[in-house]
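Hey, I'm writing a tutorial for new members on how sequence and structure tokens pair up, and I'd like a real worked example in the thread rather than a made-up one. If someone can provide the structure for the chain below, I'll link this post from the tutorial.
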Amino acid sequence: MKKKDLVLIGAGGFGREILWQLSRVNHGTDQYNILGFVDDTLSLQGTLINGVPLLGNVHWLDSYRKNICAVICVGNAKGRKDIYTRLKGNHHISFPTIFAKDVQCSDSVKFGQGCIICLSNILTVNITLGDFVIANLDCTIGHDAILDDFVTLYPSVNISGNVHIGTCSEIGTGANIIQCKIIGANTIIGAGSVVVKDIPDNCIAVGSPAKPIKFHE
């Protein structure tokens, strides 16, 4: 099988973690030919990031005329959405869903494009993930959960069954969401929070039980 050319978008800490994860995926399979990172940070241009070149800013992809895979390694949900919006008209680019080698996942889980499922995640049955969902290290997602596009789960999030999380929401490290709850779009759940009631759109909610403390547009 011919290896697929791939770039990592975002050379920060999460990007370096995904580089490591992909090196594990590649071991013994050689699925991807990792060309390097692209990142808009001026100080990184022309450098090596953990042994992999920084190829240029995101506009580098505009000049690459071959088919290429891109992984958007940006934890911030709105930032990830902005990058995809900027690139989606380039028909040379595809956005594969990336799984760590030890992910446990049933065949009844549905994934959109561009998702990143990190080490030690467990996804049970009849789960639906939209496009560009990130599940960081050591998360669990229970039966019949729905995570809409661009949702971010930070490490060690536990989601019970029949939970629905809206577009571009972010769930902080160590948060727990009990069964059958709805978290609105563009909402942030603080680290360590426990969600026992529905949380509306466009807010920051923290605590145990989690309550909105601030609303935004």
